[in-house]
Design a protein that fits this description.
The chain is an all-alpha fold. The protein is built from 3 helices and no strands. About 70% of the residues lie in helices and about 0% in strands. The chain is flat, with a radius of gyration of 19 Å.
């Protein structure tokens, strides 16, 4: 029986495509949006939303890669960390929407900051 870490079960291209490339894109997005908000727009409040999105995404990844095995063993394989990872990733995407709606000047149907949407 082959080991999981043996040469027959290693695929570097798949690792790069599935793990590293999305991470590089996320870091690039975060850096570009940071430059846009701080230097171009000169605002600081939207950075709270962007940092919250990054934190929620990181918590989701911790659930997926660290806590998942403990949840799976504790529930005898009934659930794992993918449920919580999906919920935290959804919350992260919602925070990206809140971030984006806070830096655009268009009227949205749902006000984010409490002021009326249509004046």
């Amino acid at each position: 029986m082959d080991s999981l870490h043996g040469p027959n079960n290693r695929n570097v291209a798949l690792y790069v495509l599935y793990q590293l490339w999305p991470l590089i894109c996320l870091v690039g997005f975060f850096l570009l949006e940071t430059v846009l908000v701080l230097r171009v727009l000169g605002e600081k409040k939207p950075m709270v939303y962007l940092l919250a999105a990054a934190l929620l995404f990181a918590i989701g990844q911790i659930f997926q890669y660290v806590i998942s095995t403990h949840i799976c063993h504790g529930t005898h394989g009934k659930i794992d960390g993918a449920l919580f990872e999906t919920l935290f990733t959804l919350a992260s995407v919602i925070m990206i929407w809140v971030f984006w709606s806070s830096i655009t000047e268009d009227d949205w149907p749902i006000p984010v900051s409490g002021e009326p949407a249509y004046t």
